[in-house]
């Protein structure tokens, strides 16, 4: 047997021995062996029997650093601390204005939130459709092109100075004050907002406000469009 053949034989024996050791460990210590291959589950994340998250570190629930710090301060914890999602129900007011925030991921867990102020940031999208207790939303002066709303108690919405080309307010039956100025809107259907009192929509592109005129005549809605002329066509106010 030459030298190279001898080395190959021993290499094969070592590989077989290693595989046998792993197999034996898998029989007697199945959990630790699987962890070697799959990685151990993070003990700071807890789920119920249905796989629903019930607790996690604050900075894992809210990935944006500024958001995590504000939430931690509101509940008296550190951003790395593990928190029960139920504890987030204590937060009813959240001020995140002018923090250079790009994402509000995790906001859906603030189920008791009533007032959210997040203006002057760098948000490009915002989904508050799970925040059913929301009464006021101030998301003005961002870069939002997608705003998801389904908030039966929302009364005040400031979404001016964004990049909205479409806005669905059908899920806001209690809406009283709406500011959508300085956007890219071309139409706005307010037929599902019977309690509307104030509407600002200045500096949009030929904005058509569907079915507003009957409401305006009946309730005396305050209009602020900073416009010189408008046209009424089929119960629509078209501002130029």
Structure explained in plain terms:
The protein is of the alpha/beta class. 24% of the residues lie in helices and 21% in strands. The chain has two domains: 1-40; 42-239, Leucine-rich repeat, LRR (right-handed beta-alpha superhelix). Helix 1 packs across helix 2 (30-38). The radius of gyration is 28 Å and the shape is elongated. The model is unreliable at 3-7, 27-39 and 226-240 (pLDDT under 50).
Order of helices and strands: HHEEHHEEEEEEEEEEEHEEE
CATH topology of the largest domain: Leucine-rich repeat, LRR (right-handed beta-alpha superhelix)
Instruction: Indicate the CATH architecture of the largest domain.
Output: Alpha-Beta Horseshoe
Beta-strand proportion: 15-25%
**Could you tell me how far the N terminus lies from the C terminus, measured between alpha carbons in angstroms?**
95 Å
Summarize the structure.
By secondary structure, the chain is of the alpha/beta class. It has 2 domains: 1-40; 42-239, Alpha-Beta Horseshoe (Leucine-rich repeat, LRR (right-handed beta-alpha superhelix)). The chain contains 5 helices and 16 strands.
């Amino acid at each position: 047997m030459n030298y190279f053949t001898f080395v190959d034989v021993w290499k094969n024996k070592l590989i077989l021995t290693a595989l046998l050791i792993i197999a034996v460990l898998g029989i007697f210590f199945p959990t630790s062996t699987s962890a070697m291959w799959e990685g151990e589950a993070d003990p700071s994340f807890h789920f119920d029997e249905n796989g629903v998250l019930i607790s996690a570190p604050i900075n894992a629930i809210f990935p944006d650093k500024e958001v995590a710090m504000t939430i931690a301060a509101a509940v008296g914890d550190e951003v790395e601390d593990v928190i029960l999602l139920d504890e987030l129900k204590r937060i009813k007011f959240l001020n995140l204005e002018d923090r250079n925030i790009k994402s509000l991921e995790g906001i859906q867990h603030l189920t008791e939130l009533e007032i959210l102020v997040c203006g002057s940031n760098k948000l490009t999208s915002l989904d508050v459709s799970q925040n059913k207790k929301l009464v006021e939303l101030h998301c003005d002066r961002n870069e939002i092109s997608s705003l998801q709303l389904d908030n039966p108690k929302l009364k005040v919405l400031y979404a001016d100075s964004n990049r909205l080309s479409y806005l669905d307010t059908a899920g806001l039956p209690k809406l009283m004050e709406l500011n959508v100025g300085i956007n890219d809107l071309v139409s706005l259907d307010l037929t599902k907002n019977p309690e509307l009192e104030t509407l600002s929509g200045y500096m949009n592109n030929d904005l058509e406000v569907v079915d507003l005129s009957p409401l305006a005549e009946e309730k005396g809605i305050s209009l602020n469009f900073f416009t010189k002329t408008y046209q009424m066509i089929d119960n629509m106010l078209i501002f130029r």
